């Protein structure tokens, strides 16, 4: 009798393990890493050879974690909505973009992938005026449509399509200051041959995977993959590929 019970339990355990592993293998995460179409060097539109830091790094992380995925190409505002209703399973954000650095409890977050900094960007002749973050209070500030800003109740958003458009708007005098990641701002200023200055830091933190909570069981595998790729310097190699010629 005891042997029979043991056999049933053993067979059930094997079936459960096989079923669990099969379910995990069949999980396909829908995700999006795009910011605007000018979010250089994180995501570079229409470039299969050099798609950007995150467009290269995220597939490496998922492959190492043995997680199947499908990449989508949504603009920022649609990405945020798709995450809320479950059409997307994760994206890449920085907690520093949220008030109190708190991501919505609907999500869990991975360990850091890489640092990211946002600055107030201005024309060089206006740099002295914008060295304190408090200078943005109550002012019209250039922003990217659909982007998250931790303190956008403190200033008047003037939305543009992309970081590229922010640089052009500064030069045309449509705005006096804008908020942009330091790398995208430097890249587009150089590309357009329009000088800018990086003034006060608006946010500074790390990019993480923001994963819907129902997939939190996958987080240990994702974190392990990120840690392994960082320790092997693979993620740093990808970062250097896009940023080594972008020094201030």
From TrEMBL:
Leader peptide range in chain numbering: 1-25
One matching Pfam family: SBP_bac_3
Matching Gene3D superfamilies: Periplasmic binding protein-like II
The keyword Disulfide bond appears for this protein: no
Keyword line: Signal
Solute-binding protein family 3/N-terminal domain: residues covered: 35-244
SUPFAM superfamilies tied to this protein: Periplasmic binding protein-like II
Family affiliation: Belongs to the bacterial solute-binding protein 3 family.
Listed name of the protein: Solute-binding protein family 3/N-terminal domain-containing protein
Organism annotation: Shewanella denitrificans (strain OS217 / ATCC BAA-1090 / DSM 15013)
């Amino acid at each position: 009798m005891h042997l029979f019970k043991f056999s049933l339990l053993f067979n059930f355990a094997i079936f459960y393990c096989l079923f669990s592993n099969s379910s995990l293998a069949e999980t396909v995460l829908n995700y999006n890493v795009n910011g605007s179409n000018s979010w250089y060097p994180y995501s570079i539109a229409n470039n299969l050879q050099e798609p950007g830091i995150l467009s290269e790094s995220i597939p490496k992380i998922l492959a190492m974690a043995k997680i199947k995925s499908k990449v989508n190409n949504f603009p920022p505002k649609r990405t945020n909505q798709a995450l809320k209703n479950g059409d997307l399973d994760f994206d890449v954000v920085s907690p520093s973009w949220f008030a109190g650095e708190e991501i919505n409890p609907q999500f869990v977050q991975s360990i850091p992938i890489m640092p990211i900094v946002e600055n107030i960007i201005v024309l060089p002749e206006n740099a002295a005026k914008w060295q304190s973050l408090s200078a943005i209070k109550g002012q019209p500030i250039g922003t990217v449509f659909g982007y998250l800003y931790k303190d956008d109740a403190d200033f008047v958003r003037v939305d543009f399509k992309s970081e590229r458009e922010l640089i052009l708007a500064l030069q045309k005098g449509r705005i006096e200051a804008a908020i942009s990641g330091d790398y995208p701002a430097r890249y587009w200023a150089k590309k357009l041959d329009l000088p800018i200055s990086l003034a006060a830091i608006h946010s500074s933190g790390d990019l993480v995977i923001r994963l819907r909570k129902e997939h939190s069981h996958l987080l240990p595998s994702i974190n392990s993959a990120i840690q392994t790729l960082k320790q092997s310097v693979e993620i740093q190699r990808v970062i250097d590929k896009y940023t080594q010629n972008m020094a201030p």
